[in-house]
TrEMBL record:
<dbReference type="InterPro" id="IPR000109">
    <property type="entry name" value="POT_fam"/>
</dbReference>
<dbReference type="Pfam" id="PF00854">
    <property type="entry name" value="PTR2"/>
</dbReference>
<keyword id="KW-1133">Transmembrane helix</keyword>
<feature type="transmembrane region" description="Helical">
    <location>
        <begin position="419"/>
        <end position="441"/>
    </location>
</feature>
<protein>
    <recommendedName>
        <fullName>Major facilitator superfamily (MFS) profile domain-containing protein</fullName>
    </recommendedName>
</protein>
<dbReference type="InterPro" id="IPR036259">
    <property type="entry name" value="MFS_trans_sf"/>
</dbReference>
<feature type="transmembrane region" description="Helical">
    <location>
        <begin position="377"/>
        <end position="398"/>
    </location>
</feature>
<keyword id="KW-0812">Transmembrane</keyword>
<dbReference type="GO" id="GO:0022857">
    <property type="term" value="F:transmembrane transporter activity"/>
</dbReference>
<feature type="transmembrane region" description="Helical">
    <location>
        <begin position="264"/>
        <end position="285"/>
    </location>
</feature>
<feature type="transmembrane region" description="Helical">
    <location>
        <begin position="145"/>
        <end position="164"/>
    </location>
</feature>
<feature type="transmembrane region" description="Helical">
    <location>
        <begin position="46"/>
        <end position="67"/>
    </location>
</feature>
<feature type="transmembrane region" description="Helical">
    <location>
        <begin position="20"/>
        <end position="39"/>
    </location>
</feature>
<comment type="similarity">
    <text>Belongs to the major facilitator superfamily. Proton-dependent oligopeptide transporter (POT/PTR) (TC 2.A.17) family.</text>
</comment>
<feature type="transmembrane region" description="Helical">
    <location>
        <begin position="121"/>
        <end position="139"/>
    </location>
</feature>
<dbReference type="GO" id="GO:0016020">
    <property type="term" value="C:membrane"/>
</dbReference>
<feature type="transmembrane region" description="Helical">
    <location>
        <begin position="79"/>
        <end position="101"/>
    </location>
</feature>
Length: 498
């Protein structure tokens, strides 16, 4: 509900408020990858959960302070931005560690059967599921914004105390290093041999297999510059080269890195998808804020629209999993393409088109109401429900399809990092909405984005996003075609080598 606070309480233009919301959401998404590396390599999931809970506590506390009558002017804004920064740390810290840490506590062995540990852990985290529903209904009924922000801060303090009450009984996995280090080592080793020529003899590559190699990779001819990482130098003894893993990598490690790089072009589709994802917490919400939210004698809390979208997201994820299992085919994993991604892009075209039609209707009502500039438009907020449900479905299908695809095309230990990289690219796309709004505003001469939403032409902007989504669909098919051709070329080369 940050958008409503910025426009209703801080009296910002809706475009300026959208900039702040998009930066906050984008940074929160981009930070996932670095935080995952930090967890795996250094601090572990338990301490990350403690850190994220503290971040939420202090973040909402700072937010409540910034909204209180005590502060005003520059001090209020400074405290507000500090609060958002701290909360973003809590967001990507908890999203990374909560699920994994929960599984560690409930799996067989270890502390299984300890009711005190399980009870304190479950109670300490149940608020993460119950709180959104209660908050969506109850908190909007509270008028002072600093009280709205203080309530989550208090809940986080309580959750922290309950969570720590079972700290001595929790099963903790020590950090054992990040698999992302393998990718770094391959790049470092290949860079250290830049002056060396390419080898045409695959027998000069380092093929050693270890106990950790469950799936030993064969050498492929693409991305040859990385082959230097596995190239055995004739000027040094092999034993001496093996001791320095940053100078000599195994072929399996090189091929794992290649599989990661081959999937990167597909992430370009996440940029435009991220722009569409950003609409739910910004422009869609501002539309809802200017519509009639009455449901009989009850005013519908606007956060419920976000919960409808979240329910659609979770439901579409489950349907996507069921469809993937039912339509599984016996083809090489590398040739499979994530069909859920084009489906989500097609749905995003319809979502933006529907949003444009609804906004056009809303603007016609504004015109017939003697050019209403401020205040509530006599049109039901339920007109926005289809676009919110579609947006949630798009998000769920896209996220799950990408995750399933990466599980099949990259090494298992690196798949989570690639999923988080895609989340980060979506975050960049969310922030790209700022630049797109700026460009469209300049091209339209400022007519599409004015002081209020009732004077603006968001319907035209939604049509622009619909066209961009069509381009995104063409980009997807182009990338997947090139990827399939690259795989077939490598397969033919391997057959010829045999």
């Amino acid at each position: 509900m940050l958008m409503l606070y910025l426009t209703n309480e801080m009296k910002l233009k809706f475009t300026d408020a959208a900039v702040i919301v998009n930066v906050f959401a984008g940074v929160s998404a981009i930070g996932h990858l670095g935080m995952q590396f930090l967890v795996d390599a250094f601090i572990g999931h338990f301490w990350m959960l403690c850190l994220s809970t503290l971040a939420f506590t202090f973040g909402f506390g700072f937010l409540a302070t910034s909204a209180s009558p005590i502060l005003s002017g520059g001090g209020q804004k400074g405290m507000f931005y500090v609060a958002l920064t701290v909360i973003s740390v809590g967001i990507f810290g908890r999203s990374i560690s909560l699920g994994v840490f929960t599984e560690d506590q409930l799996e067989d062995g270890g502390n299984k059967g300890n009711p005190a540990m399980l009870t304190s852990f479950v109670i300490g985290n149940v608020g993460n599921f119950v709180f959104p529903l209660v908050a969506a209904i109850a908190i909007p009924q509270i008028s002072p914004w600093f009280v709205r922000f203080a309530i989550p801060a208090g809940c986080e303090v309580l959750a922290m105390l309950i969570f720590l009450s079972g700290a001595c009984s929790y099963k903790r996995e020590k950090p054992c290093g990040s698999p992302l280090t393998t990718v770094f080592r391959v790049f470092a080793a290949s860079a250290s041999k830049m002056s060396c020529g390419y080898t045409k003899n695959s027998t000069q590559l380092f093929y050693e297999q270890t106990e950790c190699d469950l799936d030993m990779k064969s050498h492929t001819s693409s991305l040859r510059f990385l082959d230097k990482a596995a190239m055995i130098l004739q000027t040094e003894p092999l034993e001496q080269q093996r001791k320095n893993r940053w100078r000599l990598c195994r072929v399996t490690e090189v091929e794992q890195t290649k599989s990661v790089i081959r999937t990167v072009p597909l992430f370009t589709t996440s940029l435009i998808s991220g722009i569409v994802f950003s609409l739910g917490n910004t422009f869609f919400l501002e539309q809802a804020n200017n519509l009639d939210s009455k449901f009989g004698s009850w005013n519908l809390p606007l956060p419920l629209l976000l919960l409808f979208s979240e329910a659609a997201r979770l439901g579409s994820r489950e349907l996507c999993v069921m469809a993937a299992k039912r339509h599984a085919i016996d083809t090489p994993k590398q040739t499979k393409t994530p069909y859920g991604i084009p489906v989500s892009i097609i749905l995003s075209i319809f979502c933006c088109a529907i949003a444009a039609h609804v906004e056009s209707r809303r603007l016609k009502v504004v015109t017939t109401t003697q050019g209403l500039v401020y205040g509530t438009v006599p049109m039901s907020v339920f007109w926005l429900l289809p676009q919110y449900v579609l947006l949630g479905s798009i998000t769920g299908i896209y996220e799950n399809s990408f995750a399933l695809y990466l599980e099949e095309t990259v090494p298992e230990e690196l798949s989570q990092y690639m999923v988080l990289l895609n989340v980060g690219v979506c975050g960049v796309g969310i922030m790209s909405n700022i630049a797109l709004v700026s460009v469209v505003g300049r091209v339209s001469g400022g007519k599409w984005f004015q002081d209020t939403i009732n004077k603006s032409r968001l319907d035209n902007y939604y049509w622009v996003l619909s066209v961009l989504s069509m381009f995104n669909l063409l980009l997807y098919f182009s990338v997947t075609y090139r990827y399939t051709m690259c795989y077939k070329k490598d397969a033919v080369a391997q057959e010829n080598d045999r």
